[in-house]
């Protein structure tokens, strides 16, 4: 039995369980994976300086985020097709997050619908991530469904105008639509535990997995070739659409994928409640700056008018603390909970989240800090290798 002590352990365990096509889809970046390396480097080069002898014996991560109390300033990020990592994976993630006391953001491209996730995780704090479809009437209907399921927070993804160039997916024969090939069939055959525990369970119940939120008339198995025009991502998404969403969405509104202070300013002017400073986990554009390089300037520009969240590249609790110290109020985790889900289902996802909080707790003790807000005080000031900012 492998000891799962850190993110790398969970990742290795996930690698054994998942077919290679699916593992690579989750794990890797885009094109030459420069952004992925930059994310790691940008976090590694930050140091946090402790205050010694502060005499605290207990830390608290309780945070109020967008008017809600959270046990810790972390959120499970929206990840498409999490339902392929484990059977009913999205519901399992929601229950794991709920037990840890944090929100989970459901992707537009989940396998399981928000209604079924709500039924399976009645106490979870659900956020909903929106990829705006070309057909706005259908998009609005989707939002009504999310709202009816108690999603108070809408996360609109702004950084994905086109499909990213992920060459490994093509080589692995992994894509939506999923077209079975000799290679992908062998891949699945070599991962019988995944086949039996995930795919076969779908096939024996509801059939081949689908994008659960597609309206019935467009809902096709992920093996079918055509995605209807109406539910394709709108390449021409612009700030007027954010204005429209602000009008029709009564809850909290977050724009995800902001990296420039000017865009954060526009989001503020349009009445958004928050932004996620994100490089989409290094999965979209390979020449993006890392969030760690942008947070301070953006947080300074919108100070007090907009809640600043961040994500991308978190593999340790200290990575979360670094984003918080730079000015984020909470941090989203994408791949980490998926590794936990693959390694141990719902229990594994919960264990990963608790592991991150445990690492944060130990690091806070070393730093001499009692509360997350202290991390932003000058005595703990995060320093990038280039010199103090
Ligand atoms: C497998 C996978 C699927 C994702 N799908 C979505 C998605 O549907 N919508 C979205 O806004 N972001 C999506 N993301 C990006 C995450 O929300 C998040 O920004 C990113 O994973 C953070 O980086 P990390 O994985 O290093 O924590 C996805 C990420 C992964 C790994």
From TrEMBL:
Keywords: Flavoprotein, FMN, Oxidoreductase. Coiled coil: none annotated. InterPro entries: Aldolase_TIM (IPR013785), Alpha-hydoxy_acid_DH_FMN (IPR012133), FMN-dep_DH (IPR000262), FMN_HAD (IPR037396). Residues 1-385 form the FMN hydroxy acid dehydrogenase domain. Its cofactor is FMN. It comes from the Bacteria. Belongs to the FMN-dependent alpha-hydroxy acid dehydrogenase family. This is Alpha-hydroxy-acid oxidizing protein. It comes from Bradyrhizobium jicamae.
């Amino acid at each position: 039995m492998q000891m799962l002590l850190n993110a790398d352990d969970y990742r290795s365990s996930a690698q054994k369980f998942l077919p290679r096509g699916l593992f690579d889809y989750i794990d890797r970046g885009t094109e030459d994976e420069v952004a992925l390396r930059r994310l790691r480097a940008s976090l590694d080069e930050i140091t946090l300086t402790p205050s010694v002898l502060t005499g605290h014996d207990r830390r608290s991560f309780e945070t109020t985020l967008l008017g809600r109390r959270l046990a810790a300033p972390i959120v499970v990020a929206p990840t498409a097709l999490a339902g392929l990592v484990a059977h009913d994976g999205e519901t399992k993630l929601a229950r794991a997050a709920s037990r840890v006391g944090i929100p989970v953001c459901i992707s537009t491209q989940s396998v399981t619908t928000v209604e079924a996730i709500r039924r399976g995780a009645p106490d979870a704090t659900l956020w909903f991530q929106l990829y705006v479809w070309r057909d706005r009437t259908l998009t609005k209907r989707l939002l009504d469904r999310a709202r009816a399921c108690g999603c108070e927070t809408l996360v609109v993804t702004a950084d994905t105008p086109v499909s990213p160039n992920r060459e490994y997916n093509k080589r692995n024969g992994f894509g939506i639509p999923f077209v079975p090939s000799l290679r992908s069939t062998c891949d699945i055959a070599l991962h019988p535990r995944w086949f039996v525990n995930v795919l076969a369970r779908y096939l024996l119940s509801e059939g081949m997995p689908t994008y659960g939120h597609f309206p019935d008339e467009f809902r096709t198995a992920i093996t079918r070739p055509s995605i209807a025009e109406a539910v394709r991502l709108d390449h021409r998404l612009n700030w007027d659409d954010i204005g429209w969403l602000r009008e029709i969405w009564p809850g909290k509104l977050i724009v995800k994928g902001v990296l420039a202070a000017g865009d954060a300013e526009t989001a503020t002017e349009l009445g958004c409640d928050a932004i996620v400073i994100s490089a989409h986990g290094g999965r979209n554009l390979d020449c993006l700056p890392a969030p760690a390089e942008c947070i301070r300037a953006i947080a300074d520009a919108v100070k007090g008018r907009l809640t600043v969240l961040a994500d991308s590249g978190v593999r340790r609790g200290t990575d979360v603390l670094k984003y918080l110290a730079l000015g984020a109020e909470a941090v989203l985790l994408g791949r980490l909970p998926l590794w936990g889900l693959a390694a141990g289902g719902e229990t594994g996802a919960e264990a990963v989240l608790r592991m991150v909080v445990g690492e944060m707790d130990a690091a806070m003790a070393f730093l001499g800090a009692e509360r997350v807000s202290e991390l932003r005080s000058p005595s703990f000031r995060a320093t990038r290798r280039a010199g103090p900012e």
